[in-house]
Amino acid sequence: MVLSGLERADLAEESFDAALVSGLEYLRIQAIGSVLKEDGKESIMMGFADLDSFDLTQVLRDRWAEGVTSLVFEPILATVCSTDKPVEIDFDKWRRTLCDIFGSNDMILKNLEWMEIGLRATANDEDAIQKAKSTSQNPDEQTAGVQRLVQLICCASKGLSPADCISAQASFLIAMPAVLNKTVLGQAFTRMVARRWIYLATEQKFFLTSPTFYASRILGAASQTVPTISECATLLIVVGEATRLTWPQAMLRRLRQLSQQL
Q: Which pTM does this prediction carry?
């Protein structure tokens, strides 16, 4: 499943409130469609307008809720982490919107809390960064949705060590399904990675083994407006070399494969 055209446009314009609304509506239509298909009633879907008054049973609401974190929250958080502009989101308003639709859905509300932590982390809030780091070190205690949101926060954080940050980025990149490579999420992720290491090469040169040599190499590898997956993998390899990171062999081998991907 990919993002709706409206959600892609809203995220491209960094209209996060609108992206939440359009993303939820797209998921609603997808949930109704999947339920109708299972019941052999595809003919009802003559157009989206026919679904406006569709009876939203609890089963359908649960199906609708399943995709909120991966298909709404994750692309929004990745875009928030990839922008240079200040971001303001009224999370109380988002919470009311989600409760109106799903009621007190613990999974969605918990993941929304991580969205809020993620926004604070982008502003270098030390408590938010450390909470994400400590949570990432205990993945078995978290749901898959929380794990991915926490991983995105760690991928973007300027407050984590280069080793912690690049490890999170490489893990996320390697696990990303190929179908997401050219989506809003994939493109926001590669921009986020480039932005993090541009900051290293300009403001944190003390982490580099040879600032004079490696700063220009990193800036050159991160210069694309929207890096491709292969360019992103190449950048991670360069940063690893510049910071003397000892890669797990399987991870480095996979990054090299991605760096040669067309």
A: 0.88
